[in-house]
Design a protein that fits this description.
297 residues, alpha/beta, Metallo-beta-lactamase, Chain A, 20% helix
């Protein structure tokens, strides 16, 4: 079910100097095309601290892809609270509105994750007990079983949404159960925390390098409209990032990357070889997790 040409003409909510007085919604929804929604969690949607109530620096992006038979929500956000972060109600309303426009009942929903870190799975609890809802449990054994990966991390799986096919590609390295999702309809490649404009935290250097090589091989055979990750942490000036834990990010980098960034990352990892080290690029920073955080230039 091909939608209109995708639209990324959007200014994302990017935090606040004071979450107690913010006017940002807890979740920003952007309609990329008729059947594709990009959601960003507010940096002011967690309990926070007395000095800055409601603050959370993660501000992850989530992706809702709707087919004729079911919908996929990739990642459920960084907060469990339906008051501060109503992810289940937001997704339910989007699916109801989408269905109403077609004169049909809402399609069932599948909740899956780019990986199993807490800022991508916390919202799962809001979907527990909901009808027509399937949740892929976090963790490598559950991911391998659900998608039937017999030779993880080699090979790929598919998700059929109804006139919309997604390819699911194992890319461990940032986290052991990490996945990329490629949408054949929009030609979007969703890369979670593995590639985005920010600090690319590498937990397992060799796994990460192999995953990027496999992802590049996949991209060499498939058209890529945009690469969309799960965060934005870079500034809109080359090689500059906001720093870990930043709650206010004016003048931030755009969300979207493209295939050239994947090639750049692959080439950098190939050059660096088996010994990981921090390397700053214009639009991302390669960062082995066992090294000191890089400074802001």
């Amino acid at each position: 079910m091909a939608g209109k040409a995708g639209n990324l003409n959007v200014t994302w909510i990017h935090g606040s100097p004071n979450c107690a007085t913010t006017v940002d919604p807890p979740i920003q929804v952007h309609r990329f095309d008729d059947d594709t929604f990009i959601l960003r969690q507010s940096k002011c949607s967690e309990p926070g601290t007395p000095a800055n109530p409601g603050s959370s620096f993660e501000a992850p992006f989530m992706y809702l892809l709707v087919g004729s038979a079911r919908a996929l929500l990739l990642d459920s956000g960084a907060s469990q609270s339906p008051v501060l972060f109503p992810i289940a109600n937001t997704v339910g309303n989007l699916l109801s509105e989408h269905a109403a426009a077609l004169g049909k009942p809402p399609v069932p929903q599948l909740i899956a994750h780019s990986h199993s870190h807490g800022d991508h799975i916390a919202g799962d609890i809001q979907f527990h007990g909901k009808t027509n809802t399937t949740i892929v449990p976090p963790g490598l054994p559950n991911v391998k079983a659900f998608f039937s990966f017999p030779h993880w991390p080699d090979g790929a799986a598919t998700i059929e949404l109804g006139n919309r096919t997604l390819d699911v590609i194992p890319i461990p390295g940032h986290e052991s159960s990490h996945l990329a999702v490629y949408d054949r309809t929009t030609q979007l490649l969703l890369t979670g925390d593995t590639l985005y404009p920010g600090l690319l935290v590498v937990e397992d250097w060799l796994d990460y390098a192999r995953s990027i090589a496999r992802l590049k091989s996949f991209a060499d055979l498939h058209p890529i409209s945009f690469i969309l990750g799960a965060h934005v942490e870079m500034k809109n000036q080359p090689k500059q990032w906001f720093g870990l834990g930043t709650l206010f990010q004016p003048n931030e980098h755009v969300l979207q990357l493209d295939k050239s960034h994947l090639v750049e990352l692959h080439n950098a990892l190939t050059t660096l070889g088996i010994h990981g080290r921090t390397e700053r690029h214009a639009d991302f920073i390669i960062y082995p997790a066992d090294q000191p955080l890089p400074p802001n230039p």
